[in-house]
Amino acid sequence: MHSVFADMTAEETLAHHRGTLRALRVQHIVMVLVLGAMALFGAERGMLVLYLLGLAGIVATFLLFFYRLAQAVSQFQDILWQDADVAKYRSALETYYGQTKRRSTQNMLELELAFCDYFDGVDDAALERLARLTFKGRKNTQRLRSLNLQVLLYNARNDIVRRDEALDRIRTMAAQYRAGSKLAATATNLVRDLELRCKPVEQWGEEDARYIREQMGLADKRLNRIGLRLRLDAYELTHSRMAEAACDLAALGEEPIVPRYETMRLQLLHQAERQVIDK
Questions:
Q1: Along the 279 residues of the chain, how does pLDDT read in single tens digits?
Q2: Whole-angstrom distance, CA of residue 171 vs CA of residue 166
């Protein structure tokens, strides 16, 4: 599955995305004005039902706007998460960054660029970006994504102290979300995933491998599935199941893949080859 931008250039992608955002804002403003006028008319004429419908419509319009806005942003992010096209995503983000002066938007774009840095394997640049970010609110989901990336980066650098500090902050955030809410479930699952990611595959049990297989079935983004497959292949190699791992690693070579994961894939393939020779 590809993003809606798969056949577009970076320039076309950005123009399409920004056009979508503008259209959403215009539609939202028009709807609020119409419903506001309806509510005002109802109030002036003593028509309580019409007044209440207007107010309810305004609330519903705000909810719909934020939902559609989130969908548009998610579609834009799919250049990375579905197409695995770091270069195009980075180019669109950098152009977008240069065109906006809003600090909140720049903050969001900087975080996305940090993910690009991570998947390109330039960890120092990613950490420098993350150090510049500021987030409002203890439950901010962008803060959660930033901490997630910090855990991955510090784990890759074997910086156990900073890694565990970032992971503890995610645990704290997970406890702050309303019990039973979608955000609470997302944060809790993230903690479980990161704990396993920080655990060497040599220490995994079959229950850990089963969890990864389950997550592969649930993952709706190509990049997430590829990351899970690579971790499972690494596990298979520790249990001398070279044929299964080598077959999957070869198949991954036929798919769009980010530089970081391609490096991991090749390293695991070489490991499988060495194990076959040494056997």
A1: 789 999 999 999 999 999 999 999 999 999 999 999 999 999 888 888 999 999 999 999 999 999 999 999 999 999 999 999 999 999 999 999 999 988 889 999 999 999 999 999 999 999 999 999 988 877 788 999 999 999 999 999 999 999 999 999 999 988 888 888 888 888 999 999 999 999 999 999 999 999 999 999 999 999 999 999 999 999 999 988 888 888 999 999 999 999 999 999 999 999 888 876 666
A2: 9
Q: What beta strand segments (E) does 139-183 contain?
A: none
CA distance 21 to 101: 16
CB within 8 A of 16, min separation 6: which ones? 4, 5, 8
pTM confidence score: 0.91
Per-residue tokens: 178:
């309303």
Listing DSSP states for 121-170 in one string gives T-HHHHHHHHHH---SSTT-HHHHHHHHHHHHHHHHTT-HHHHHHHHHHH
What CA–CA distance (Å, rounded) separates 74 from 268? 31
Q: Which residues contact 135 (CB under 8 A, 6 or more apart)?
A: 107, 142, 143, 146
The token pair at 254 is 């036929």
Alpha-carbon distance 245 to 265, whole Å?
10
